[in-house]
Amino acid sequence: MADFFKFFRGGRNSEASVAAELDRVTRRSTGLNELARSLARLDGQSVLDLGPTSPANIGFFTGLGERTYNEDVLLASRSPEYRTVADDGTAAMDVDKFMAENLTFQPETFDAVLLWDMPDYLHESLVKPVVMRIHQISKPGALLLAFFHTKDAGADAPYQRYHIAAPDTLELQRIPAPQPGGINGRNSHFRLQRVFNNRHIENLFHDFSSIKFFLGRDNVREVLVVR
Prior knowledge:
single chain; alpha/beta; Rossmann fold; 30% strand; globular
């Protein structure tokens, strides 16, 4: 049971940020619908949610008979313990330390992974190592759902908490990033770090067996990847 309740580092601070969240916006999701239909065929599969914890998501997948795990990788990456200095004196991430302490599941554990739009906001040096780790901890044939902003989204595209409202419907809720010391502020948000084009996305998931794109109406492309 302990693994079932394995939530992300700093979970209390993230839960405290609920008071600062903004109103939810509803969007349809073709990728989510395909993933949910696949999972509904069998009970007892394992799903890993890599976004901020959402009771709606936990309830949705447990209602399908699936085991749900949650680890907020983006929030964990903001911990000061992973900050270091490169040889040229610039700020950097201690990638080895981060990967040794996060996503430490056994190989081929998960049948589905919800990546959401985390790669767009994650530090550049962590993106490929995190995707490689996801490949390791996913079963052959597992599904991975990810969202990527298009160039039209703009640099100030807000970071969202994704709540599953129905098999084909999400509620998006803007959340602020915690400031150093665990203090949350409405004006301190995770910022979009990059925009992946289709070729970049294909390269990112090079080791996976297939990838399917769905273009949404809100400057976000959905990607459904098969391990």
